[in-house]
Design a protein that fits this description.
147 residues; Nuclear Transport Factor 2, Chain: A; globular
């Protein structure tokens, strides 16, 4: 599996292997071919807490797995290629469940042009049925540059 998180992005204090694997899966699925396909969006939504999971990109927000699937399909309908690269992760709290993630993204559009920009994300991790889950992913990016 390709890693879209630079090794130097991880803080030394981030020692929870399950949470690290969860983040790796999230970014691999975010960059998966055929964005907007039911299978890739369902797999990504499974990473979220089933009831209280929140996904927000700029001003667009969804809560719950079905809503997350529908929002992502709508958001990325005209962007067939995405490549997110995580360049730095900061942790907060004793349990390292609150993260600030910094990265770069490159989008390939249906019309053939490419755009790129920096982004930041607030991520809150939780546990559901003994498994690590995403409770919240709030992405801050200048969406105007990607039109």
């Amino acid at each position: 599996m390709t890693s879209f998180i630079e090794e130097s992005a991880w803080p030394e204090s981030f020692t929870n292997g399950e949470n690290r694997e969860l983040l790796e899966k999230f970014y691999n699925l975010s960059n998966a071919p055929n964005p907007g396909s039911d299978a890739s969006e369902e797999a990504l939504a499974e990473l979220f807490d089933p009831e209280k999971g929140v996904y927000q990109l700029a001003s667009k927000k969804a809560q719950g797995r079905e809503a997350i699937i529908e929002l992502r399909k709508a958001l990325f309908a005209s962007i067939p290629r995405r490549e997110h690269r995580v360049v730095k992760i900061f942790t907060f709290g004793e349990d390292q469940s609150q993260l600030l993630v910094l990265g770069k993204v490159e989008y390939g559009h249906h019309h053939g042009h490419e755009t790129n920009s920096d982004w930041a994300s607030k991520i809150v991790l939780s546990t559901s049925e003994g498994q690590p889950k995403l409770a919240e992913v709030q992405i801050i990016v200048d969406t105007a540059t990607h039109i």
